[in-house]
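step 3/5: co-fold with fructose -6-phosphate
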Amino acid sequence: MEIFVADTYKQMSMKAAQDVITLMQASKNKLLCIASGDTPAGLYKEIVSKVKTGALDVSDWKFVGLDEWAGMNGHDEGSCRYHLDKQFFFPLKINKEKISFFNGRAADLEKECATTEDFIKQHGGITVAILGIGLNGHIGMNEPGTSPLLHSHIAEIDPETQAVGQKYFTTPRQLSHGITLGISNLIQARHIILLASGINKAAIVKKALEEEISKQLPVTLLRDHTGFKIYLDAEAAQLVQL
Ligand code: F6R
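step 4/5: write tokens
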């Protein structure tokens, strides 16, 4: 595990973006797992800007979405896909065939899981997984207590996450369930890039690094992964002794 601390959110995002690009370019298979949420938005902005200026070509990259709220897809304002379409897929004009993303509105969510697993296999596994971290240590929608053995699955959302998740929406939404890649999928990724920024993440970052590895704190399950790198801004790193 490596830790990189930047002074600012912008610097953290720039460094993480550069590392994602380097890792993707060095890999024969190029499947990027992307999280939604506020934290990776700056990283996506950097990648979009490099493509727009001609400094980067992502035409041979494929993408898998980390998670989605049950009952929602890209047509729902505030959904994971909605934000990623706006920040990443639309500006880069990524062809739909290159993206696998859980459709939370599908009648058969188990089938969505199977389709995602097939896509990952078909593309040789996840090259780089970009992740954020929840205030309770969740990763994707793997909430405290989730089995680390799970692959894609339907998840029950913790009450705290349901409350925090309202920030992505303009009107209150029911966020009781989601569909997510499991810890097993992430452990099998060749590289994991986890980002945390802001003072409200300082306490969970400290726990992520210092507490015993346990499924009660899902982020700790990634700690033994040899390609695991954590990117922090100064505020998120405030309680950590480095
Ligand atoms: C989003 C996701 C979540 C977020 C986490 C942090 O796709 O899987 O686990 O990464 O809740 O969210 P932000 O970045 O908004 O603080």
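step 5/5: annotate
Residues 35-39, 66-67, 80, 132-134, 138-140 surround fructose -6-phosphate (CB under 6 Å).
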